[in-house]
Amino acid sequence: MVYRITFLGTGGGRHTTMYQTRCTGGMLFEHGDPVHYLHIDPGPGALTQMKNIRYDLGKTESLIISHAHPDHYSDAPSVIEGMTRGGWIKRGSIFGSPTVLDGEGGLGPCLSPYHINLPEHRQTFRPGNVLDVDGMKVDICSARHSDPTNVGFRFNTPYGVVSYVSDTEYDDDIGEQYIGSRVLILPVTTPHNNKIRWHMCTDTAIEMVDLVKPELCIFIHMGIVMLKHDPAKQAKMCEDATGVKTLAGEDLMVLDIAEELKLSKAQTFNDRLWAPKWAPDMPEASKK
Ligand SMILES: [Zn+2]
Q1: What is the DSSP string of 147-169?
Q2: 138: CA distance to ligand 1 center in Å?
Q3: Which residues pair with residue 219 across a beta bridge?
Q4: Which tens digits make up the pLDDT trace of 120-135?
């Protein structure tokens, strides 16, 4: 049984995204027995990072896109093409907010009808919904963001709840939804008390972590100002204020969730020609 999250990108916000100060590729979540492969919020950098760790996109079975901002969805069409083996096999599931899949209030849809219809299953979500993602129960929580249909997620594993709080402004009603989480993956866009609308800063992160009291908190979705002001120090401020182990995420960091939480770094490869066996090659007969 495997519960492993690989952080394909720990940046967020428009400037980090446009300059790729950090990658913004979301997360790969391997879960269950047999293991299932879920991609969450594949923003820019997702494909490059999967290539760097030799991840075969053909293994992906489900894709979740929290909302209609490019740092959460822009690599999704190619992830869907990987999931459906180049678009030839109808398989897999796509879960998205109404803005992502249908378009709502002037936002989205973020994917072409062609790509939305490639997977076998598609489902929109709203706060309060419970998803079955390849056997894993996922609770949908509300968020307060400039895409009003954005949500957060509680992934229920046999080793406790792992929550991914997608972009939101903070208030206690947002935090209360995550009480009971063992791991809190938190988008902390700005440092100190630099509150920007619709997002969290270190000060609001401290309020939330103090309320939820997880075993581990990981900062992600770090904006360019956060990155210029020592994210590790910001995380340490949160740890000192709350007593909760808090880390600033790093690109290609791996979190294993079991009896113990274990952090490591994904193995990387430098081989531009690598592709999985199902990718096209010359027919044997034509090879000389
Ligand atoms: Zn956003």
Answers
A1: STT-EEEEEEETTEEEEE--S--
A2: 20
A3: 186, 248
A4: 999 999 999 999 999 9
**Cβ-based burial of 211 (10 A; exposed 0-12, middle 13-18, buried ≥19):** middle
pLDDT at 287 over 90: no
Identify whether 109 is preceded by a cis peptide bond (ω within 30 of 0): yes
**Is the torsion defined by CA of 115, 116, 120, 125 positive or negative?**
positive
User: Separation of 36 CA from ligand 1 center, angstroms?
Assistant: 27
Q: For residue range 76-100, what is the model confidence (pLDDT) as tens digits? A: 999 999 999 999 999 999 999 999 9
Alpha carbon of residue 102 to chain centroid: 21
Nearest partner of 165 among 147, 141, 130, judged by Cα: 141
Is the pLDDT assigned to residue 279 strictly greater than 80?
Answer: yes
Angle ∠(39,67,197) on CA atoms, nearest 5: 125
Distance 257 CA to ligand 1 centre (A): 27
Q: Where in the chain are the domains?
A: 2-267
Distance CA 272, CA 52 (A): 9
CA of 281 to the centre of ligand 1 (A): 39
> What class is the 2-267 domain?
alpha beta
Q: Give me ligand 1 centre to Cα 248, in Å.
A: 19
Query: Are residues 208 and 163 in contact, defined by beta-carbon separation less than 8 angstroms?
Result: no
